[in-house]
Write a structure and sequence with these properties.
The chain contains ten helices and 30 strands. The chain is α+β, with helices and mostly antiparallel strands. α1 runs antiparallel to α2. InterPro entries: CTLH_C, TPR1-like_2nd, WD40/YVTN_repeat-like_dom_sf, WD40_repeat_dom_sf, WD40_rpt, WD_repeat-ST_regulator.
């Protein structure tokens, strides 16, 4: 038996009828109703005052999940505790074997017989506020789809009319299921229904969804011990201020990271630029590094040797933005010469120079599919444009504001644009429609979106960055106040980085780098990065959390 999965036997060992969750309360060696002899009372210290029955059942489930079925059976025999009651085991068997009538009777009340065991009662205990008709609908929907898979359209039609429709559930869902009657074959059915058939994982998935609505004391949630252990790890990680590794902590000891392992010491300086360096960006695979700035040159370095691979020198003035394509094969650059350019990263060859605008092209970002990219413009009325990789303009959004910076959610749901004043514009990326705006208290330098597409980091030129939830933008989740400049004049970009994007890194006009813990809002490190020269940009290596790069007005890129 695998918890919430296939079962080798339809029924588990019988349990005391007095137990609501199918287990028996055995004490002082008394014999339980299922033939087990419960052990004499043992010191509770062994499980640190946790409920002995709960711990034992979790261990039985975990051993079963790990494939140690013999050990699980031995533990059940010795402890006198069963993982599940006969009713739960019979319900599991009914779902996995496609016995839909029996499954409904067991779930919601009735009488049935499975494996020679007769079960009567009022159904399995459901959690509060659970709609029983929703659970019935899921079971009958599976029944309907399996009948279609067998090409028994007559019976499938009867299920729609006499079993699904009377439940008064989502009408649009019913219409969709009815449309599946017109599928030409099983491949078409599975594709349209996004369903993998009776012999796939659909029954296991159904059982998993149903089990979430059943009282956990009756039917243990799937992989419960493993989930609890994962929660322990996450909690220890969250309490570790310097945690900066993707490796999973060991369960053998409490987790803590050594501050000395945190990246805070410069180990190499790259001084190929002839002027201020405004931006530095790692490639997505972490094997390349590109930098650009006032001298109008893009330098591409190999990582970790930091040898110069290419020098891109076709721009007529300073380069204020660049972006690697998702596969790192191309680079887009944006310049004060009012053009964007597309390059091949492998050879450094210029592929296309986009049409010129009236004002500088300020920012750029790639679509996740790598087939197009978007540029932001200080040219009012143009605002945002989208291009394909042949250099053809696909669309001009016509935003009535100057765009200082843009960011695109990794799931391509939203595009965020910051103007050159204090307003953030959030667009639907597919429709180009403006969803809402956010007013910020100061001019902005940059915007970036987390990898889960949920949170927005806005860096303002007064030395403060804010973390916002894109779904509830009125709420400021975190503020990171790094410094107070004498005058707002330089564009400073912030970034998210480190393992699991745990940190926010911000440069400053004084040259200091401030690194904050994203979740706690606590300052982790203050690094004197560029010795009195403005630190304009930081980029964290996406595959090596112990490495980041900074760009400064001292004409240097520091690693």
């Amino acid at each position: 038996m695998v918890a919430n999965g296939p079962s080798a036997s339809p029924v588990h060992k019988a349990a005391s009828s007095e137990s609501a969750n199918g287990t028996n309360d055995s004490t002082n060696g008394s014999t339980s109703s299922n033939g087990h002899t419960a052990p004499a009372s043992k010191p509770k210290l062994a499980c640190f005052e946790h409920d002995r029955e709960e711990v034992t059942r979790l261990l039985i489930q975990s051993l079963t999940d790990l494939g140690y079925e013999g050990a699980a059976a031995s533990l059940s025999q010795e402890s006198g505790y069963d993982l599940e009651s006969p009713a739960v085991a019979a319900f599991r068997h009914a779902i996995l074997q496609g016995q839909w009538t029996e499954a409904e009777e067991l779930l919601l009340g009735g009488s049935t017989e499975e494996g020679g065991v007769s079960i009567n009662g009022n159904g399995l205990a459901l959690q509060e506020d659970v709609d029983q008709d929703v659970m019935r609908f899921w079971i009958r929907q599976q029944k309907f789809l399996e009948l279609l898979e067998k090409q028994d359209t007559g019976k499938a039609l009867m299920v729609i009319r006499s079993e699904l429709t009377p439940l008064n559930q989502d009408t649009s869902k019913l219409h969709f299921l009815s449309s599946l009657l017109m599928c030409d074959n099983n491949y078409d059915l599975m594709r349209r229904a996004e369903w993998d058939g009776a012999n796939g994982e659909s029954r296991n998935h159904l059982l998993s969804e149903l089990s979430k609505r059943i009282s956990p004391s009756v039917m243990l949630p799937e992989r419960r011990l493993a989930i609890l252990l994962q929660q322990v790890k996450r909690n220890q990680i969250s309490l570790c201020l310097y945690h900066n590794t993707a490796a999973s902590p060991s369960l053998y000891q409490d987790h803590v990271c050594d501050r000395n392992d945190f990246p805070k010491t410069s180990f190499i300086e790259l001084a190929e630029h002839a002027g201020e360096v405004w931006l530095v960006v790692f490639s997505n695979n972490g094997k390349r590094l590109a930098s650009c700035g006032a001298d109008g040159v893009v330098m591409i370095y190999e990582v970790p040797s930091f040898a110069v691979l290419h020098t891109l020198a076709e721009h007529d003035s300073g380069i204020c933005a660049l972006a690697w394509s998702p596969d790192d094969s191309m680079i887009v650059t944006c310049s004060q010469d009012k053009r964007a350019r597309l390059w091949t990263a492998e050879t450094g060859e210029l592929l296309h120079a986009m049409s010129s605008f009236q004002e500088p092209v300020s920012s750029c970002v790639w679509a996740p599919d790598g087939k197009s990219f978007v540029t932001g413009h200080l040219d009012r009325g143009v605002g945002i444009t989208q291009w394909d990789t042949s250099g053809k303009m696909l669309s001009e959004w016509g935003a009535a504001h100057r765009v200082q910076d843009i960011a695109l959610a990794p799931d391509a749901s939203r595009l965020v644009a910051a103007d050159d004043k204090t307003t953030v514009f959030v667009y639907n990326f597919k429709t180009h429609e403006l969803e809402y705006t956010i007013d910020m208290p100061a001019r902005m330098g940059s915007v970036s979106i987390t990898q889960n597409s949920r949170y927005l980091l806005v860096n303002m030129l007064d030395g403060e960055a804010r973390l916002l939830d894109l779904d509830t933008p009125d709420d400021v989740l975190r503020k990171f106040k790094s410094y107070t400049p004498d005058a707002i004049q330089f564009i400073i970009r912030s970034t998210l980085g480190g393992a699991n994007e745990s940190f926010v890194a911000i440069g400053s006009e004084s040259g200091h780098i401030y690194i904050w813990h994203k979740e706690y809002g606590q300052l982790v490190e203050e690094i004197n990065g560029h010795g009195g020269f403005s630190c304009n940009s930081i980029s964290w290596n996406p595959v090596d959390p112990k490495m980041f790069a900074s760009a400064g007005d001292d004409s240097k890129v520091k690693m």
